[in-house]
Amino acid sequence: MTNSADPVQRQLDAYNAKDLAAFIACYHSDIAIYRMPATAPALIGLNALAAFYQTERFTVNALRAEVLQRMVVGNKVIDHERVYGMAEQPYEVAVVYEVMDGLIINAWFYQAQ
Asked: Across-strand partners of 70?
């Protein structure tokens, strides 16, 4: 049985390397990304995820994220992250990743206010 944190760590490493293929490989074909408090997904499916990260994130030179804390509860991985490069100052976000069959199928982003 795979550790639920494995695909989450792989996607973080790929995110920091701006390796789109490796990043997308960590996600289920039915991935849904939520930006809370929205109840509808902001992104659905691998194609939408790839297009967004290719144009909106991986073009940012200073982009990187670091995990400040991680909890694993069954198939949920909760990361407290600090994100650099998207704003003048780094900002913090909590992300809940749901892992199914070794891939991330849902992710909920909660940005610090």
From this structure: 79
